[in-house]
Prior knowledge:
Blueprint: H1 4-13, H2 18-29, H3 35-41, H4 45-48, H5 56-69, H6 82-97, H7 106-109, H8 120-140
Amino acid sequence: xxxxxxxxxxxxxxxxxxxxxxxxxxxxxxxxxxxxxxxxxxxxxxxxxxxxxxxxxxxxxxxxxxxxxxxxxxxxxxxxxxxxxxxxxxxxxxxxxxxxxxxxxxxxxxxxxxxxxxxxxxxxxxxxxxxxxxxxxxxxxxxxxxxx
Length: 148
C-alpha cells in the first residue's frame, strides 16, 4: 500500500467519509474490495449523519476490528479477543483523541456543534491516527492486518 496518509487524502478527495476511508485502507491491505460494505459505512459518517453520534473514525475503526475478528458465517466464531480489542480502541480514542473534549461525538470531537458538518482539517488527523491504532491493536492481539 502507498503511504496511508496520501491514500487517505486521495480517498477524501473522492468523497469518501471517515469510516469508509478507514475500511478502504484496511481492505486495500488485504488486497480486497467490498463496495457494498463501503456503501453501508456511509451511514456512520458525521456521527450518524447529524453530528450527535459517535465519531465515524471510531465506529469505522471498530468495524475494521470486527472485519478481522468478528463472526461472519454460521460455521465460524468471533475471535475471543474482539471485546478486548474494542475496549482498547475505545480507551485509546477517549484518552488520545477526545481527551480535551466533552465526549466522542463527531460534533464534540471537531468542535462543531452548529450542525454544519465536520471540520475536515480536524478529521484528517483523527482518521489517520485511528487507522494506525487499529492496525497496532490487531498486531498486538496476534492478527496480521495484511492476511486474508
